Amino acid sequence: MKTVLTISAVLLVATSSVVAQRAFTGDSIIDEYRPDGELRMWTFIVKDSTIGRLFSTVKGRTTIDGIEARIIEQRLGLDFSRQGSGVSINVEGRQYVGENGGYLGCDLTIKTGEQIAQLEIKRDGDTLRGSVEQGGRSSDLQQQFDVNGFAADIYLLDMHELYLSMHDFKVGDTIRDTLFVPQMMSKQYVEATIQLFVQKQVYSGVFDSAFVVRYTHPQLQAFYFTPDKRLVKVEIPGQQLKAYLDVVRKFETGASGPSTTGPTTGNVLKRLPVFLAYFVLGLIALVFYVGRGWRWAVAWVALGAGGVVYLVVTVTQMPLQVYLVEHLFIPRIAAGGSPYFLGLFPAMTAGIIQELLKAGLILAFAFLLKVRSNRLAVIGAVCGAGFGIVEGCYLATLAVNVDLFSWHLLERGFMILFHTTSGALLGYGLVGGMNSRRFRLMLVGMILCDALLRYLPVFVQQRVVDVRMMYFVIPLLVVSLTGYTLWRLKREG
């Protein structure tokens, strides 16, 4: 009887999970899924060639018609001429929406080919009033539209994502609604069916669980929308166009400059099994280096100190990377810059700051706690393991979706091994003193290795290699570095 009850309970939980996945509850306010400062980036592809990107950032608040408005800054650049037909389309400016997602206006510069237009729309009661300035001529427009109505333009996917995020639906539902199209200054009927909830390959090697929303009006298109409010993929067959959500970064920008949003209590509690897995992976990484070092009290102090030092990354490296993304990466990419070149800057930022922090911590143990030189490699490894464990835990709290058993766990495990190995090499280098040639070589080498591991995802993002290839290359590099380190330590005795 007990067995039957247990099986029944398992089946009930499993059934509840499936039912939950077939339904979706919309947010009541936009802040629930897009906080101030958050950046999202979509990449557009036609016939396997990248034609452009959309950057969407929540940029604070203002007031329109007595209503508090969220500001969404947009940068869209599409070059259809690369395919031998069509023109380039560039849209830059701001959209304004209420806390419930209702459309309040926009201020956009639209460039189609060589033609440039300035569009400004503001809500006035139940009417949207706007003006279009093009070629030295200005036209005034107006359109009645419900104060709680939503807006969407064909390639401004963040607006479509907002619309879906603020509505309840379940598999089998049909959406019939009227949206406002700012660039046309008119209303448009939309109709779509929520067909199914699937584990979908978003692009090569990357899978996600998403609702399939198939539109029949205003055109045939399919949206893949996740329960955590991400429009991860769009397919428009008539244009042979696909778009993918590449980046979701939850950053806030305050008076003192950009900073990352911290982990919430809810995120921490939900990810406790993931944290435990990272801790176990850290202990496994230490098996290669510690030996009898487990008995040293200073080793356990080093493990905790490594974790504490990582927190410095959250107030140094991460804000600096946000600044580089907002003031270098986004403007240059939107202007046609190379992501391969621009991606070097945030990667090198991480490499320099992280390795200097680890080296500084090991130096502190050597000079302040008087750790003997023959123990520095072990202490360095333990510092690195603590650093890697806390890095994994912190990033997990910021991630949109983290599964315990996944490729991501494998990748994070090897990153923890890298930090452990890096710490061991830095400690080994310090045996000859901080001014020794060996230490300088080890420090520069670890900075470059750290930066390389951060740089590899650029090739996946550009669809040059499959993500599974990255999950092969990262372990290969880390295992090779670990083998070299163990050989050097054994040779030195």
Write the SSE topology.
Elements: H1 2-21, E1 23-24, E2 39-46, E3 49-64, E4 67-79, E5 88-98, E6 103-112, E7 115-124, E8 127-134, E9 137-144, H2 157-165, E10 169-170, E11 174-181, E12 186-203, E13 206-217, E14 221-225, E15 231-236, E16 241-249, E17 251-254, E18 257-260, H3 265-270, H4 272-287, H5 297-313, H6 317-334, H7 339-342, H8 344-367, H9 376-398, H10 407-429, H11 437-455, H12 457-461, H13 467-492
Helix pairs in contact: 4-9, 4-10, 5-8, 5-9, 6-8, 8-9, 8-10, 8-11, 9-10, 10-11, 10-13
Description:
Residues 1-21 and 251-261 have low confidence and may be disordered. It contains 13 helices and 18 strands. A hairpin with a 2-residue loop joins strand 2 and strand 3 (49-64). It is elongated and about 80 Å long. It has helices at 2-21, 157-165, 265-270, 272-287, 297-313, 317-334, 339-342, 344-367, 376-398, 407-429, 437-455, 457-461, 467-492, and strands spanning 23-24, 39-46, 49-64, 67-79, 88-98, 103-112, 115-124, 127-134, 137-144, 169-170, 174-181, 186-203, 206-217, 221-225, 231-236, 241-249, 251-254, 257-260. It has two domains: 24-249, no CATH class; 263-492, no CATH class. The strands form three sheets. The chain has a 14-stranded antiparallel sheet with strand order 9-8-7-6-5-4-3-2-16-15-14-13-12-11, sandwiched between helices. It has a two-stranded antiparallel ribbon with strand order 1-10. The protein is an alpha+beta fold and 493 residues long.
